[in-house]
């Protein structure tokens, strides 16, 4: 019979005296950060797609000129190619502003809360949910990867 490690590793166990409400609140904070990470991915996708479109538009303008449509090509070139997507800004500036003024502050706040309340431990809510949902002593329901030892004292 195979024996499996029981329970999460020490990095994913709540410290002594931490309440269910605190773990739940930190879980919600982590969830919110995951949504921000997802939104940030869309923002970077927006940045890349808009840049790709602008480069393709430049090629289209060149092709219109080659096809003899100089006036139309000039109009599109002057009005749209290289145009700001938001007043005064290209997408890279939007991304930089989001990162500097929102994303980094959000990440720092989440980490500060974890440091202050649970010694920096991550995903306690999820680790406890895993313990509640997994089938003990069953393959593919292990608490942690086989052979992963507890970290020694630091």
How many domains, in number, for the residues? 1
Fraction of helical residues:
55-70%
Spans where pLDDT lies below 50 across 5 or more residues: none
Global structural class:
mainly alpha
Largest sheet: none
Secondary-structure element sequence?
A: HHHH
Q: What percentage of amino acids are in beta strands? A: under 5%
**Nearest-integer average pLDDT:** 91
Q: How many angstroms separate the termini?
A: 33 Å
| Rg on CA atoms, Å | 25 Å
Number of helices, counting only DSSP H or I runs of 4 residues or more: 4
Got a strand count? 0
Overall geometry: elongated
Structure report:
The protein has one domain (20-132). The chain is mainly α and 154 residues long. The chain is built from four helices and no strands.
Fold blueprint:
Blueprint: H1 20-66, H2 70-79, H3 91-118, H4 124-133
Helix pairs in contact: 1-2, 1-3
